[in-house]
Structure formats: structure tokens, C-alpha cells
Amino acid sequence: MLQKKPWTAFVIILFLTIFCFLIDLPQLLAWIPGSKWFSQQRFHLGLDLKGGTQLIYEAETKDIPKEEIEYAVEGARNVIERRVNVFGVSEPSIQTSKVGGDQRIIVELPGIKNVSEAIKMIGATPVLDFRELKEAEGAEPVGRGSETSTVSWLYTGLTGKYLKSALIDFDPQTNEPLVSLEFNKEGAEIFGNLTTKNVGKPIAIFLDNQPISVPTVREPITSGKAVITGKFTLEEAKELTSRLSAGALPLPIKLISQQNIGASLGKESVKASIIAGLIGLLGVACLMILNYGSLGVLSVLSLFVYCLINLCLFKLIPVTLTLPGIAGFILSIGMAVDANVLIFERMKEEKALGKISRQAIKDGFSRAWPAIRDGNLTTLIVCFILFYFATGMVKGFAVTLSLGVIISMFSAIIITRNFIEITSKK
User: Fold this and answer.
1) Does the pLDDT of residue 361 top 60, yes or no?
2) Is residue 56 helix, strand or coil?
3) Which position has the higher pLDDT, 130 or 208?
4) Nearest-angstrom CA–CA distance, 416 and 403
5) Which of 46, 159, 238, 372 has minimal CB crowding within 10 Å?
6) Cα separation of 172 and 151, whole Å?
């Protein structure tokens, strides 16, 4: 009589399989009540598969101290990401990259095929920063524009990346529009220190590398709030407020490359990848059945569940699939069977020692586990290194491969073992 525990696990695996099947192929089961939620889950395709636009910007860091460059570039990346998200671009990818001594920001916008539209989305976001007077200079400017042209200003590190909000306000005496700024916690601390050490001295507010306001600090300001008074018209104040609210870049950026990727290339790549995956899956299944007979059949069933779980997680996490990412998934199919091979060979050795079927299964799994664990752990370490140090599509490969490795251990140790236990004799 079969034990109850394997059958309980089998029922759980069966429900998991059905759930994953509904997620993966909802169009085949549209007649099932409640299937609308399943149909809303979809694969997220990357730029190379869906088509779209890639923009590469170079960050201009010549006026920024070396120790501040990394933070400024990362701040610019965050601002661009917020601005792109406002326009609802699907699965955008904004990453930083260092090429030689140049700092670059790579913007990938799937589904956007018009380059000028993409550039417009990112927009001419203003570069806002606060600067203090260089001590060696004796001049003390009080205005804007040409009045500060002969003055040297020092970079303070207080930039638009610390900006929390920008609002239109009005001078209570002149009724002229002005722009009220509020910094986040870190920015408020920097601004407080800056105003404390510059009491009685001017601090210049630069926008796009041009001084627009040079107020004199009368007392330390620790509230984290500042005001830009630049003799704006109401329209100018509104535009500036809107642009600053969308995100003020902490440093200038220059577009150096733009590329359109057609969706037709992506469709062909997906088609070829599916064919390659099916051929690989069929080849692995035939090999396992020929070598291990009924055990091979059970491993193929386990592999089928493994594929359903992987594809389901790709939708639910979600994982943005790129061509290298699909390659990582296909590679993981072969690695998923590797654990079964180790287990089956150990079971053969245990049976050769005269052990009964149940004991051979138990010992085969327990003794194959250290090799499975160590082999997959080394792969996961490599995947982590690839994900941490690589950029772009290589990260997609690392994500899908590592996810496949983790699920493969689950399918081999839990699913395959359960199938063997409920079909084996004592």
C-alpha cells in the first residue's frame, strides 16, 4: 500500500502544475470562469525582442570632483528613470556604464520606434545645482547673468537629485512669481551646512550651468527649503516648476548614439528561440527515455512541470525576456536533467548492492544531493557575478539561468522523487 505522504505531495504538485498551465496558456482556457486574471499576465519582452529605441547619453563630468562623479551619474540615471516612467513607457531599462574614462547612461525604451519621440520623452530636463563663492575671489555678486561672469564658483554637491518638490509661489512684497524648492532629508542636511558656513556670503543657484539667482545668506537655513527669485514671468515659473518636478539632472548629459530596433527582428528571434527550445527539449526527452526507460519517462514529466513553473515565474515576477535571457532558459533545461542523471545513476548503484526499491530510491537521492547542490551552487555564484558586474542583456541571461537552476533543484529533488515514489514498488 502506498504511503499517504507522497500522494499528498502529488496533489500539491498537480495543483501547482494546473495553476502554472493556466498562467502560461490562458488563451486555451478562456472558457474557465475567472480566466480573465490569467489572461492579464503576460511575458515582458526586452528591446531586442519587442523592438524600440536605444539612446546612449554621455555625462559631462569635467566640473564635478572625482569623488562626486559616481553619485552624480547615478542621480542622473534615477532622474531619467522617473521622467520616463511618467510617460508610461513599458519596461524601460536605464543603466549606467563606464567606457574608458567616459560615464554613459544607456536608455532602452521597448515599444518606442520613433527616436525623436523618445528623446522628447526624456526631454531637456534642467540641470540644477547650488554653488558657493570661491574664497580667493573678492567680488561679491548680487545679481544674475553677466554680473557673475567674472566670479569663480565652487561645486558644493547640492544638486537636483536631492530635490523633493518644486512649487510656484509669489513674492509677498512685489507679487512676482518665484519657485519654491524643498529638498529631501539628505539634501536638507547639505543645504543646512552650506548656509551655515556661508552666512553673509552669496550662494549661486545655477540652472543649465547659468546663474539664475544669487541670494546672500542672512542666516542658516535648516528647514530644507530654498527659493529661486529670477524675475520670472508666470509662464516661465510654471515651465521651470514642471521641469524641476519631473526631475532635475545633477549634471549635463549629451546624446551620442541613437538606434532603432524593429519589432520584426524580435518576432523572428522569438520564433527561432521557440524552435530551438522545442528541439532541445525533445532531444533531452528522447535521451532520458532511451537510457532510463520508465525512470526517463518520469523525468520528462518532471521536466515538463519544470518548464511550466519557469514560464509562469517569468510572467509573475516579472522577468524582462531578452534573446540572451531565452538562451539562459534553454540552457537551464539541459541542466535540469543533469540532476536526474546523477540521481538515477546513484539509484542503479544502490540497487546493485541488493537494496529494495524504496531504500535504493531514498539512498540514491540522499547521496546524489551533495553533488547536485555543489554543482548548482557554483553556477549560481557565476550568475550572481554576471548580474552584478555585467550590464544590459547579459543580466537577463544571468537572471533566467539562475532562476532555472533554482527551479531545477526543486523539480529534481521534490517532483521527480515524488513521481518515482508513487509509481515504485516496495
Assistant:
1) yes
2) strand
3) 130
4) 18
5) 238
6) 31
Instruction: Write down the residue that cell numbers 514560464 correspond to.
Output: 311
Residue reference for cell 499517504: 4
Rounded to an integer, what distance in angstroms lies between the CA atom of residue 30 and that of residue 27?
Answer: 5
Q: Whole-prediction pTM value?
A: 0.65
CA-to-CA separations, 183 to 96, 161, 219, 224, 297, in angstroms, rounded: 24, 9, 18, 5, 63
Phi, then psi, of 220 in degrees rounded to 5: -60, 140
Of the candidate CATH numbers 3.30.1360.200, 1.20.140.10, 2.30.30.100, 3.40.50.300, the domain formed by 52-258 belongs to 3.30.1360.200
How far is CA 272 from each of CA 120, 313, 327, 393, 399, rounded to the nearest angstrom? 34, 22, 11, 18, 21
Neighbour tally for 65: CB within 10 Å: 11
**β-bridge mates for residue 170, sequence order:** 177
CATH of 4-46+262-423, one of 1.20.1640.10, 1.10.260.40, 1.10.443.10, 1.10.150.120: 1.20.1640.10
CA 88 to CA 141: how far, in whole Å? 43
Q: SS3 letters for 279-346? A: HHHHHHHHHHHHHHCHHHHHHHHHHHHHHHHHHHHHHHCCCEECHHHHHHHHHHHHHHHHHHHHHHHH
In this prediction, residue 245 has a pLDDT band, given cuts at 50, 70 and 90, of: low
Segment holding 19, helix H or strand E: helix 4-24
First vs last Cα of the chain: how many Å apart?
Answer: 9
pLDDT confidence of residue 426: 58
CB 55 within 8 A of CB 107: yes
